[in-house]
Amino acid sequence: MTNKLLFFVLLALCFSGCDMLETHPYDVHITGERELTNKNIQLIENKMQGKKTIRFAMISDTQRWYNSTEDVVKALNARGDIDFVIHGGDQSDFGVTKEFIWMRDIFNKFQMPYVCLLGNHDCLGTGEDAYRAIYGDPNFAFTAGNVRFICLNTNAMEYDYSEPVPDFNFIENELNNLSPEIEKTVFAMHVKPFEFVFNNNVAKIFQLYVNQFPKVQFCLYGHEHKFAVDDLFNDGVLYFQCPCIDKRIYLLFTIKEDGTYDYETVEF
Question: Which residues constitute the signal peptide according to the record (predicted)?
């Protein structure tokens, strides 16, 4: 009798504890908001319609630095002059589903729209699937005022070159369908040309495409966790690297009506 009673007690404990069991870290079980890129693009485009001066911030590589990420959200919200935020990729370190959910919940505290690029660490495991579920396609573009922002997946090594990264079909489609109202262009990516994760067989071709767009202001990237500004192709197009959030720095850009722009590295 005692053994039977013990068996049923253990069985009951087993079933009552099922909710305490962790699911697989790569299960891509997404709770909460999804398809955030399209939602935020709509907010940006509506907000910026007709504007000639644009001010946006860039952060990048927030992976595992949750406290610093919370702090930069507070710092940017406190300014009151930021139109939108670009995240340069690597919000996760291991591609774990919960990493994306935790970061999304922090980013959703922004008082302005934001978009997130796909980083190479975001591609680990089922990370890209989680990214696609929460945000959408890793290649996307939006218009802020008269500026077209082209945001690209450049993490070629993570695909073992089995997929077109960067996707020239996407870039060419953007080029062929530009609105006549577009006067300037900004490119954003996680990995820059000539870095080993980029497909450097096509680095120069990539830049040829970049230079076909109207008045390229600059290119943005993250990945290397430090600040840098380089004219990679000696053609006058500057590539700005955004530091990781652990450096407690964000980049602030102001694109002006007269065709010039300012940038700042801001500590928080």
Answer: 1-21
Could you tell me the pTM of the whole model?
0.91
Domains defined for the chain, CATH in brackets: 31-267 (3.60.21.10)
Helix spans in the chain (H): 2-16, 36-48, 66-79, 97-107, 127-134, 168-176, 203-210
| pLDDT tier, 77 (very low <50, low <70, confident <90, very high otherwise) | very high
Which residues have C-beta within 8 Å of that of residue 54, sequence separation ≥ 6? Answer: 48, 83, 144, 145, 147, 253, 254, 255
SS3 label, residue 64: coil
The answer to whether 89 and 120 are in contact (CB under 8 A) is yes
Exposed e or buried b per residue across 227-248, where buried means at least 16 C-beta atoms within 10 angstroms of its C-beta: eeeeebbeeebbbbbbbbbebe
| Closest listed residue to residue 115, CA positions, set 96, 143, 78 | 143
Whether 28 contacts 126, CB under 8 Å:
yes
